[in-house]
Structure formats: structure tokens, C-alpha cells
Specification:
By secondary structure, the chain is an alpha/beta fold. It has 16 helices and 13 strands. α3 links the parallel β4 and β5.
Length: 408
Amino acid sequence: MPPPFALQPAATLSSSGFFKSMRILHIIGSISPEAGGTTEAVRMLIRYTPPGYTNEIATLDEPTAPYLGALSVPVHALGTGGWYSAKLVSWLKANRDRFDGVMVHGLWGYNSVAARRAFSGHKPYVVFAHGMLDPYFKRAFPAKHLKKWVYWLFVEFWVLRSAFRVLFTTAVERDLARQSFWLSQWKPMVVALGAEPPPYAPGSSLPAFFEICPEVKGHRFLLFLGRIDRKKGCDLLIDAFAALRDRDPDLHLVMAGPDASNWGLDLQAAAARGGIADRVHWPGMLTGEAKWGALEGCEAFILPSHQENFGIAVAEALACGRPVLLSNQINIAPDVAADGCALVEPDTPEGTQNLLTRWFELSPPEREAMSTQASRTFAGRYDMRRNAEIILRVFEQSPQSQDRRENR
């Protein structure tokens, strides 16, 4: 199904030039790399900003946060690392005339409240939902969802209703969002997210990964790359790998990602009970060259998640030409499965075992065909060098931009 609002050719990139520049402000609770895929999406939008665009970031991070210095654009850290900052609204109001558009990343935080207070009626803002309206949370945490209803009625409903557009990364996410709260009114737009291609020459990043995870060197392995979190289905994967340990005794499993809740200790104990402790490796969070080395070195990427709005790590695996083994709760799963580079099963114990079984049963030529298609799918769907431009161009359709066009 096509997006309900189609983008027109980019005015800022035309030879005659409707605009001299477009200055975009990104508002996010935290830009910490450990905060998950939302922060990586912001970083990619900035890295692949098209000509004529400039970016700034406003966050609730502490000004002394060590990761702020690594960003290539001005960052206005206006908080103390918590949910609220009295400085944010006043700063936004004082600076709103400097920006042509505002992109609010995520919901259920003070960043979205502040954006509406500062910009509604003055400057177009869009809300990038990043999966935060998925009804999974309604099913998984019913008591918490009831509390959210109050916040929704008085706050987030109005944030989204006042937004120029609400951005979803797939038609699946857009349609599911309507199921979270029966009271909903917004202007949706589907935009493709994605990933960047590997920045290293083929094979050159493997040593960086093996330096962090030397136990896996010389072995074939599947890769899980994400937060060690119950939502990600990590327990399903450990149990399935243990149940099928004799189907491919030379295959190892790498469980890479941050573990904020220390759940990994329970998972390691489960691996030991299943007789696979020596074949499951826990290198922690992988970044930079080590992350790309893990993606390049794995046999396939696996993610049996209970809910995944997009899955940037999935797109990164495709960029490395790796087949992906996914649960059917990942919103891009139908597309990549239709392309022929993914196996998809339900997010259940049986479904996760089926994922592994189907992979074991593929012939080498079939696996090679999936790898070839993975690279094609990334190039055709998820290359952020192209998709970042499409996302940022949303502001060219705002009434204020139309007025500037007519004035010029």
C-alpha cells in the first residue's frame, strides 16, 4: 500500500533552487548509543543529510555526557539525564525561528510534550514514532497500558494531532498503531528507514571482532545483535539452540548486546543447563569495526523478537550480504521474506526451533542465493544514503515551505 502522502521532487536540490537551505532540529530524550535504535536512526539521518540541509540536536542529556563530543552537529544538552527539564521549552521557543522543521524522535517522553508547547501553531514538526505505538506493549504490559491511557488522553494524543506528519517506517507499523488507542487522529506518512553500508573493506573488520570475542575465531556462528532483553526473545533463542545442539554440533552462537538488567546471567545459566555453554558467546555491546566484523563473519543473523518496529541491525546484516532469520513480529519481515533473503517463523519456542531447523536444512547453493539477495534487498530498500534524503524532505511539503516557495 503506498504512503498516504507522496513526496514531490526535492525543491532544495533543484538547479533553480527553491530554498537556499533547510535547517532541521532533532529533539530526542537521549542521544546515547546505548539508548537503542532510535538514536542510531538520528545519527544516520545526520550522517547522510542531503545537500542544502543542516541539522542540530536538542536532548535531555547532561551537558557533560561523554558521547556528545563524537557528534558532528551542534548538540544542545538541556537536561540532567532524567525525564524532565525546565530548560527545554524555553530554549525551543527562543530558537524556533532558526529552524525550518522539527523532528521529534519517540513518544512517552518530555521531548514530545515540549515540542508541542513550543512549536504548535508556529513551526511544522513531525513525530517519528519509532515503534512506540505498537500494540505489543498493550498485550505485554496491560497495567502499564492503562496508566498510559491517561497520559494519552491529556498529552500524546494532542502531540500527534498537532504534528504536521507522524512518520512510520512500514505500512505494518502504521496500521498497527491505530490498535493501541481507540482515540487516535494524526496524519501518517510511511518512510523507509535503513542502515549504512559497511564502511570497511571486505574482511578487514574481522580481526577487530575476534579481538573482543576470540573464542569464536575459527568457528561458524549465528549472530544475535541487540539488547539482551525479554522483548528480543533471547530466551527463545537459547532454548532452541540447546534443543537442536546435535543438529549442527560445529555451529556456535554469538549473543552480542548491552545487558542493562543483567538478564544475561539467567540466560547463561540456561545455556549451561542445555549443554551449550561452550558454544554460546557473550561479547557485550559491539560498536564500530567490531560490530561490522561480527556481521561480516556470521553465517546468518537471527532475531526472534516479540516486537520490532524496524530492526536497524537487520538492515545492517543485509548490507553485509547475510541472510536473516526473523520472527513474524518484526515489521519488515514480510518484505524481506518476499525478497527471498529471510526465513520467518512465529515468536514462539516452536517457531524459533523451526527457524534454526529450516536454516540447517538449506543446501549451500540455497544459502548462497539468500546471501546474494540480501545485498540486493539492502540496495533496493534499506540504503540510508538514499532514504535519509527522502525522510528529511518531508518538511518541503509543509505549508510554511510552500509559502517560501511561492515567495521566491
